[in-house]
Amino acid sequence: MREKVQQQALDSIKLYNYEGIVDVAPRVGKSKIAIDAMKTLKKKVLITAPFNSILDSWQAEFQKWGLEDKPDIINQRSLEKINLKDYDLIISDEIHTLSERQLGVLAGNKVLGFSGSIGSRTKLKLSDTLGINPIYTYSIDQAIKDGIISDYEINIIPCKLDNSIKYVPAGNKVTQFKVTEYNNYVYLTSMFEKFKQLGQGNAKFSFASKRANLIYKSNTKIQACKRLLKSLSRALIFTARTEVADLLGDKAYHSKIKENNLEHFINGDIDKLAVCEMSSMGITIPDLKVGVFHQMRSSEESAIQKVLRMCNWEDGETAQIYIFMYKDTQDEQWVSKAIEPFSKDRINFLTL
Q1: Of 258, 256, 259, 265, which Cα lies nearest the Cα of 235?
Q2: Three-state secondary structure along 185-209?
Q3: Cβ distance 63 to 69 under 8 Å?
Q4: Helix or strand (DSSP H, E) at 89
Q5: Per-residue pLDDT at 140
Q6: Strand pairing report for 290-293 and 235-238
Q7: What's the whole-model pTM score?
Q8: 138: which residues sit within 8 A by CB, 6+ positions away?
Q9: Which is it for the CA torsion 209, 212, 217, 220, positive or negative?
């Protein structure tokens, strides 16, 4: 089935004159599709990607699929440093990661974009800025049906900010005291709304940042996450702060830790690994079927990439995704936005 999808995508690329977005579920083989397209196009091509690890994988794919006339490849952060007019086609891998500035640099060039996790808002942005739209789509649901990736269940676990224990620092340098999680959230939200109404952007963002930090680090959700993890044998845990990652799982993997615990986790030496914003693109972790989100970002693309880390196909198995969120807070809005691309019939609400 994978080969059939790859051929359909290639046919669409040719039909639309090598310009547009190829939106296919992970595990389909985006690089194989792109390489097959390059083999039929005798022009100068540039490939861009967001991470050097992905650029390295492209070199291996060129060798694997026998591409003799190899294109130039660069990290998309370097787009401004080269003359794009020297190229007939720009292939953007993981096109959903392009920044506003990078989109501006690419505007006016012929672009063929690939993504396995592009959200609806990003599609509109790419249409507006680059004038490109999806030319071939192969959905996650279809990939599950065809046995390319495994099925999944998303289990959302609502929590409430604690209003009984006063442990959150508050006040100023002169007057310091402690309040509950709930009272601190109410105060920070009221100040955010106040400065939003006054149009004072700096103050508004300051209180938004403090509120986010409270959500990321407050004790109630950390303890609820720990209780769940005790019942799990192997899991990848996502959070938003390095100090929280250090509290969860057997080991953590982030910029402040020198040991490559991700590699140990991939090799099976670690059963529970807590990460912050690890690059989930281009990484396959064997025997991984459980993902725990202590904290989820509001990005659709980030959610898709991370959830599908757990969807390696093994007949009859279903990936289990657990998402903790603070009910009736900004956290609930972040989660709601992030899970928009996922089938509603695969989403459950649990009480632990």
Answers
A1: 265
A2: HHHHHHHHHHHHHHCCHHHHHHHHH
A3: no
A4: strand 89-93
A5: 87
A6: parallel
A7: 0.84
A8: 5, 8, 9, 23, 24, 25, 28
A9: positive
